[in-house]
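Re: folding output
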Amino acid sequence: MWEFCCVGNTWSAVAHIITGVIGAGVLSLAWSVAQLGWIAGPLFIIIFAIITIISAFLLSDSYRFPHPVHGITRNPSYMDAVKVFLGRSALSTMGNRLNGSSARPTLIVKRLCFALLLVQMGAQYETWAIRKSNCYHKEGHDAPCEYGISLYMVLFGFVEIFMSFIPNFHNMAWVSLVAAIMSFTYSFIGLGLGIAKVIENGRIMGSITGVPASNIADKLWLVFQALGDIAFAYPYSIILLEIQDTLKSPPPENQTMKKASVISVFVTTFFYLCCGCFGYAAFGNDTPGNLLTGFGFYEPYWLVDFANACIVVHLVGGYQIYSQPIYCGADKWCMRRFPNSVFMNKSFKVKLPLLPAFHFNLFRLCFRSVYVISTTILAILFPYFNQVLGVLGALNFWPLIVYFPVEMYFVQKQVQAWTTQWILFRAFSFFCFFISLVGLIGSLEGIVSEKLS
C-alpha cells in the first residue's frame, strides 16, 4: 500500500492536489452558500469545479512542447511552460498589465502569500479553536476565552523548518498522503456535525435568496465576497505542473494528470457541497464563518479538538506544497549561478539514532530556514493578512488560472481567431475575468469594512 501511494502515479498526484486544494477553507463554504442561497450557492460550487477541470486539462497538456504527448521539451513549472509557449515577452507584458511587474514575482508572491496564511491558520486553529473549545467546555460559552497566537506561530514555524529538509516535490508523496487523510477526517467531522445539527433542529434552515441584508448594496458586497471565496477555494494551477513532473510514464503524463484532476475535483466538490449545504441547513442566517468554531459546535469538545488538530497537520503539509517550488527554484538558480561553490552544491550525509540517513547541504539549510523564519515573522506582524490575501488572490485568479492556460492551448493547437473554438474559450476567459473582478471588489470592501468596524 505504501509503495502504491508514494510512486509517481495517479494516486500520488491526487494526494498532492487534495493537499493543495482542500484547506481549512472547506469549513467556511457554508458561509458562502448562506450568502448566495439554496440555488446559487450549490450552483456556483459546481460551476467553479468545472472551471478548475477545464483549466487543469489545458495546463496539463502544456507539460510537453510542442506536442502534449510526444513533445521532447518538458516544462516542470508553470513559468517554464509560459516561456516555452508564449515567450519571455508574454511574462513581462502580462505582468505589467496586472501588477506593474513580471509574472514570475507574481507567482512567487502568491506562493509566499499562501505560506504566510498557512502559518497564521495553523496557529489560529491550534489556539483559538482548540484552547477556546476547552475553555468554553470548562467555563461556559459566556466566558472571556481569548488567547494570543504568536507563540504558536513560532512553534508552527519550527515544525516547518524541520519539514523543509524534504529535498523536493518528488519526495513529498507521504506528506501529501498524510495531509489528504487529515483533510478527509476534519471534513467528515464538519459534515457529521452539520447533519447532527439539522436533525436536532428538526428542519432545514435557509432560503433561496440567502442571508438578507439591509439594502441591495450590502447584499451585493456579501455575494461578491462569497463568489470570491468559492472561486479561490478550488484552483491549484500554480503547482499543477510541479505535480505532473513527479509522474512516471507510460501512460503519458498529461493523461495521468487529467485523471488525477478529475478524481481530485470530484472529491473536493463532494466535500464542498456537503459541508457548505449541511452547514447552511444547520444554521441558516446564523451560519458561522467556520463550522468547527461556530456557535453550538463546542460540544462534543473532544471531537472538535481532534478535528482542529487534523487541520493543523494538514496545514503543515499544505505549507510545504506551496513552498517546495520556491525551494527548488532557489536550488536550481544557485547551482547555475555558482556551479563550483561547495556551500551551494556539496551534500553531507547525516545519520541520527533511530532515523534513516539523509543528505543536506549548507545552502538548503540556511535558505529554507531563513524563508520559514521570515514567513513566520511576517505572519506575526500582519495578523490580518488573510483579508489582504483575498485581494492578491483576486488579482491572480484570472491570469494564472485561465488566461495563460488558454493562450498556451491556442498556440499548441494552432487555434485560429474567430473560429467556434476560439470564441468559446474567449467567452470562458471573459467570464472568469468578471468573477475575478467582482471577487476583487468584494475583498476590497471587506478590508475597508473590517478597518472601519
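--- second protein (sequence, then structure) ---
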Amino acid sequence: MGVPLAGAFLMGAGSVGLVYVHLLTFDYLRSMGYSNVEVISHRVFEAVPPLRYLLYTPTYLSLHHREKDSNFCLFMPLFDLLGGTLNSKSWELQKEIYQGKNDGVPEFVFLAHVVDIMSSMHVPFVLRSISSVPFENRLILLPFWPVALVYMLLMWCCSKTFLVSFYYLRGRLHQTWSVPRHGFQYFIPAAKEGINRQIELAILRADRMGVKVLSLAALNKNEALNGGGILFVDKHPDLRVRVVHGNTLTAAVILNEIPSNTKEVFLTGATSKLGRAIALYLCRKRIRVIMLTMSSERFLKIQREAPAEFQQYLVQVTKYQAAQNCKVSPAFSHPIADQSVVLYRPCMMMCYMMVTLGVQTWLVGKWLSPREQRWAPPGTHFHQFVVPPIIGFRRDCTYGKLAAMRLPKDVQGLGSCEYTMERGVVHACHAGGVVHFLEGWQHHEVGALDVDRIDVVWKAALKHGLTPV
C-alpha cells in the first residue's frame, strides 16, 4: 500500500494532498472489493486490458478466500502478477458473475417498475433498513432526492432491467426485477416503444435462463402500452416462459373484499381490463353496477358480454354526481362494526356513522381528485385498483389499499417490503404469478380477463397458503 506513496516522495512529487487522495482511493477500492457486488463491467477490462492489474474486484478477492493460495493484494493485482500469485480464473469468473451466469436461476420473476423518485430509494441495495419496512416519504430521504433524480435520468439514457430482491418459496428461487422507468414515463407517448423494448428484453432473458413464469406489474401490462402483455406473446409464439399479468387474482381479491350484502356499486375505470371483469362478475351475482364511462360503445360491448338475464344490472353513467343516488348496504358487515368497543373515539364515531347510515361501495379504477371524491356520500368505502393509489381526502369515508395477498408462511429470505406493503405481503398481480407457477399452469395469462377463472384462481391461491390481507 505504501509503495506508490514512497515512490512519489522519492521523486520529489509528494504532498499532503497526495497522501489523502491515495488513502481515500485505496480505502474505496478495498471497500468495493469487499462489497460482493460487481460494479465494474467485464467490458471495461476487455476494452482496456491494463486496468485488470490496477483495479481489483469482489470476484478477485473471493477467489483468494476460496482457494487461499492466490490473489493476496488488497490494492493492485499488479503485485500478484509480479509475485506469481495471480489466479488465472479471476477475469473469466468476474465476467460470468457480472452477466448473471453464476447466480441461481429463478423459476419465478415479478417484473416491477419504479413508482416515483422517492420510492426509487426503497430498495435493499440503497438503504436496506428503510427497504425492510413499508415505504413512506421520509425526511431523511429528502437530501438524496437530487441524487435519485440524476440516477433516474441516467437510467432513462442507458440502462437495462436489474435485480431488486429475491426470496425462496418451497425451495424455489423467486426474484423481483425492475424495468428502469418511473411511473410518469409510462404516460409519455415517445417513451412507449422504449419501455416495451425493456419489457421484451426482460422476457427474452427470462426465457433463455429457464424461468417458468414471469408476472408483469401494474404499468408494465398497461392496455395502451402492450395490450396487457399480448404484444410479447404474439411476437414470440415459441416462448417457454409463461407471461402473466396476474389481474385475475387481483379481481378476485377486490371482489372478495366487497361485503356480501352489497346490492349496488359505483365503478370507475369501468372499461379497463379489471373494470370489465369486475362488472361482469358482479352482474352475474345480481349486483347492480353503475359504470362511469363516457364511451357508450365500450359500455355496450361489455354489457353484451353478460348473459341476457343479467344485462339489466349494468348501468352506464357519465358523471360522478350519479353516485349520490347509488344505494348503500343496509348494514355494515365489516369486522370494524363488531369491534368498535376497542377502537379509539374517532374510529368509534366513524363506525357508528357507517352502521347507521350504511356504506356505499366505490370501486376505483381511475385516479380521483378531491373534487371528484366529494360526490361520494359520507360513509363511502373506496376499494382501489388504480396505480398510484388515490389520496384519502375525506375524513368521513374509508379507503382500501391496493389489492394484495400475504405469501405462504414457509417463504424464506424476505428482507424487504414491496412498496407500501408490510413484509411478506405482495401486490395481487405478483401473487397471481406465484399461484400460476405453483399450479404449474401452462397457458399465458395476457389480454382480457376470463371471468370464469376468477373463482378458480382464488381457490388455488387459498389452497397454496396465500391469504387475503
